[in-house]
């Protein structure tokens, strides 16, 4: 690492983050050393050890032992531990945000939102840890049924790299609140921020050994070993749809429960009667948040004919004016793409788009100082796409927006639903009847009306179609991590 290298709390990042340290004994990793790097500068952020399959066995074994330890019946302890974790995240927010930006590339502003949002969601589930109970029913004369909610057992939590803390917390924390023991496997691009945050949880007084374990390494070896492990009862997976399908097939061998949060290709529909200033700002937020690397990205803007040209022109001008740069620079509005692989994927789609549609803004590799060492691409806007274009169909996961036009409401709905995905959608109109009709007609788990990317811990999210199975956040996000059991008492005890 060169002179002038980024520092975290006054020390070069990799020195502080060589892992695992004494505080990180919940990480089971005795394999090869690997690095995570800063996508803005190419410099090393952290040096870590990967896990071996023996480490996976060890972590799952520790979790299995812990799941029988009484943690499931200690709701006050669970609430206290999780609340303590949330406060630790808040207290350490600046250091964690800096590390998150260093490792993932997102802007420091967004990194702070992610840390504080993770703390807030943890507080929500800390409260719910004391409300995990079932119900009873009188089922005819002298017969009473008691429905219990019990933890599933050992839950494997496999996370992606785009919102590595939010998506960790969204599965891990309700799993713990419900009394499960857990094995976390983060994406190889963002291991250090995950381990550093987990260390705050692991250090909470009273957390039984083995309830939180972590393995590191590639999806193809360590992820696969975890998903296929006999000691794992459930897999909470967030990532690409194709990976999710693979995980589900492998989990099926052991009939393990799965919760899958997968890809998206969200439509964002603007009617001519919308407040166009708000719709424009909403469209930019929808696609350019996290440099387009967000599952709910509003990557398909669908605009009513009479306002299409005006909106496109304003959008192109705004996109060209966005400041792309190192996420640690507070003036940057977009950071780099999180890896060279992701940048190359985005550029491949840009080239396809140039061949078949009209590029109205961006889509260029940014060169010169300070861009040369990073994965910087200017935000791209395409119009005049042919039906069936892969830019309209595939999840690109980058700052690439397609703009289509529609003539009437029926066509708007048809275009919005013309996708294999169904995670989210946006809708801009001042006509309440239309908002209701179109909102009902679009097949997606979340429909934002005159807004975009507003999430609430209390409200479930999840996908229709190829965007997933199950729901996260809210009460349903807690119940995903429980089994129900019916205890039936029959006072008469007459079976026949
Ligand atoms: P990915 O599918 O490549 O990897 C996700 C995780 O799975 C990583 O930890 C990876 O190491 C692991 N993995 C890879 N192959 C595996 C295998 N065979 N067995 C077990 N684990 C394996 O996804 P990514 O590139 O990290 O993340 C981007 C994707 O995640 C996008 O498709 C995005 O839409 C999706 N995503 C969805 C949501 C949601 O809530 N629906 C949220 C964020 C991201």
Give an overview of the whole structure.
This protein has helices spanning 13-17, 53-67, 75-91, 93-104, 108-128, 166-177, 191-202, 219-227, 241-253, 276-288, 305-321, 340-356, 390-393, 409-416, 432-441, 474-479, and strands at residues 7-8, 11-12, 33-37, 44-49, 135-138, 143-151, 154-158, 181-185, 212-214, 234-238, 257-261, 267-270, 300-304, 358-361, 380-383, 400-406, 421-422, 424-428, 446-449, 464-465, 468-469, 482-490. Strand 10, helix 9 and strand 11 (257-261) form a beta-alpha-beta unit. The model is unreliable at 1-16 (pLDDT under 50). The protein is an alpha/beta fold and 496 residues long. It is built from 16 helices and 22 strands. The site of nicotinamide-adenine-dinucleotide has 33 residues, from helix 8 and helix 9.
What proportion of the residues form beta strands (DSSP E)? 15-25%
The tally of helices reads 16
Largest sheet: 7 strands, mixed
- Structural class designation: alpha/beta
Give the overall shape: globular
**What ions, cofactors and ligands are bound?**
nicotinamide-adenine-dinucleotide
> Helical residue percent?
25-40%
Mean pLDDT: 93
Provide the gyration radius in Å.
24 Å
Low-confidence spans: 1-16
Question: First CA to last CA: what distance?
Answer: 78 Å
Oligomer: single chain
Number of strands: 22
Read across the widest sheet, the strand sequence of neighbours is 14-15-16-13-12-18-19
